[in-house]
Write a structure and sequence with these properties.
Oligomer: single chain
Shape: globular
Largest sheet: 6 strands, mixed
Strand order of the largest sheet: 6-5-4-3-2-13
Radius of gyration: 24 Å
Length: about 525
């Protein structure tokens, strides 16, 4: 099969720039809702092909085009929140989204530049097998935290349903990204090399994927106590009325009615900001009676709502547990321009373009994302926080299970909700913990400790899903060591692959300094 691909690809008159752009767009098919995980490997091989024989400057341009294809097709849904729900003119929303995509594509551009800058004069295998995976993952990792971070569409997420997912409890999402990029390099070698080298590359690729499938059967954590019957509510409140004062009573009644239908569950979870009123405003009228009813039924309720510090006037995006005891978690990692406006003094009049309700939250000061729910400590995240795995694993090993509440209604009927569910599944797999995901309009889900969907509720449906979850104990290797093994391996590959050029650069710099 591989031998047939090479002459076929050689005859394709595809300009390298177009090949890079197409490879980026093709990568989107590896993510939900398409979930064609092997496509990412083919796309990375095509991306590397576009870099061959390119100057570092041209490689940067092609890497940027790869990023434009990836983010242009993968996250253009950002414009929905700006235009349809942020009351921004359509042309401004599209312009700002395009600008954001262009900036995010710079990371891919930098990875392309790094590959070609360091592989000059190196053996032919160095580029695809060392520099490509190393550079791609280093820049992906930097993108995940620089300037508050945007970790969406990391390559590893597209593998949640594939064989490489078996490595997630060991190496995390960036480790899987490294294996995807390495697989792409092996595929490129299998296509372009000859005889035994080609066979060796193919065997190594097969072994890597078979090894992942084998690891998928390993349980890294253990059950802790009896299972719990849990219900996740999805009220399907349209974003257009969510913050309308006249809709507050209807919103509260909808959530309470759904709750009363599931009081036979041990745990009931509401979505992010399910109630649009501050905690202190509805404590006596709604929350105290609801907590009393929950205690009488032996049920714990976890719900999202804003909470205000009455002394300072600061308010937080909160997650409240009521029932046998009360506890409050305040969201720590806020969404720029959605929950707070960064650089207000610098942006000046541009701030007026953002008419997002409740867009001046303060970050919570919780040291760790733990919430006391009944007899258990639970690892919690609100919306975007679950995209940051290092923040999620701060709840371990104490957390018996995970809860994520979200409101993906901001992004309508787009790729965002299935992509976000995919991220939540990766967090469950990395930590070896069951995860409950409650969203306002979908996709709500109950996920087991291997990242598999136990049950889901589709988008734009009002209702609930109920299933048994198993509290667990113990820690996966990833929850102990985080990203450092994967990032360190990526750095080592990059340094090994570029050692000649790095040595020359150091020597040249020393000579200039010596003069």
């Amino acid at each position: 099969m591989v031998s047939l691909l090479k002459p076929a690809l050689a005859r394709l008159p595809i300009p390298p720039a177009l090949l890079a752009l197409g490879a980026g767009a093709l990568t989107v098919l590896s993510f939900a809702p398409f979930s064609l995980s092997p496509v990412a490997v083919l796309a990375i091989a095509a991306f590397y092909q576009s870099l061959t024989e390119a100057s570092p400057r041209a490689a940067f341009q092609r890497g940027w085009l790869f990023g434009m294809g990836l983010f242009g097709f993968g996250v253009f849904w950002i414009r929905i929140s700006l235009n349809e729900f942020g009351n921004m003119d359509a042309w401004v929303a599209h312009l700002l989204t395009a600008l954001f995509i262009a900036v995010m594509a710079l990371y891919s551009g930098a990875s392309g530049w790094l590959v070609r800058r360091l592989d000059a004069g190196a053996p032919v295998w160095v580029g695809p097998l060392l520099l490509l995976p190393g550079a791609v993952v280093l820049l992906e990792w930097i993108r995940g935290w620089l300037f508050t971070g945007f970790p969406w569409l990391s390559l590893g997420y597209g593998q949640i349903a594939g064989p490489l997912a078996g490595y997630a409890p060991i190496l995390g999402v960036h480790g899987i990204s490294l294996l995807v990029a390495f697989s792409g390099g092996l595929l490129w070698c299998a296509i372009h090399w000859r005889d035994r080298a080609r066979i060796g590359a193919g065997v190594a690729l097969a072994a890597l994927w078979i090894g992942g499938a084998g690891l998928s059967a390993v349980d890294w954590t253990q059950p802790a106590g009896p299972p719990l019957r849990a219900s996740v509510l999805q009220a399907n409140i349209p974003q257009s009325i969510k913050w309308d004062p006249e809709a507050r009573l209807m919103i509260a009644e909808t959530h309470v009615d759904l709750t009363l239908e599931h009081l036979d569950s041990d745990l009931i979870v509401w979505p992010e900001t399910a109630l649009p009123d501050f905690l202190h405003q509805i404590r006596a009228s709604l929350l105290d009676p609801l907590a009393e009813r929950a205690r009488a039924e032996g049920t714990e309720i976890v719900l999202g709502l804003p909470a205000m510090d009455l002394e300072s006037g600061r308010y937080f995006n909160g997650l409240l547990a009521i029932g046998s005891r009360e506890d409050l978690y305040a969201k720590r990692h806020l969404v720029p321009f959605g929950e707070f406006l960064p650089f207000k003094s610098w942006l000046g009049p541009l701030v007026d373009l953002f008419e997002v309700p409740m867009s001046d939250f303060s970050p919570g000061d919780n040291r760790r994302p733990l919430l006391n729910v009944g007899a258990h400590q639970v690892g919690v995240s609100i919306c975007y926080e679950d995209a940051f795995p290092i923040e999620v694993i701060q709840a371990l090993p104490e957390a018996a299970y995970l809860i994520n509440v979200s409101n993906d209604a901001w992004f309508g009927d787009s790729l965002a909700p299935p992509q976000h569910l995919e991220i939540a599944r990766m967090r469950a797999l990395e930590t070896g913990r069951d995860l409950l995901r409650a969203t306002n309009t979908g996709i709500s889900a109950i996920i087991d400790h291997r990242g598999r969907l136990i049950d889901t509720l589709p988008s734009f449906v009002r209702g609930a899903v109920t299933a048994e979850i198993q509290p667990r104990q113990g820690a996966t290797p990833f929850s102990r060591f985080g990203h450092w093994p994967a990032v360190s391996l990526a750095l080592v590959l990059t340094l090994l692959g570029g050692r000649r050029q790095i040595r020359r650069l150091i020597q040249s710099t020393f000579n200039k300094w010596a003069r």
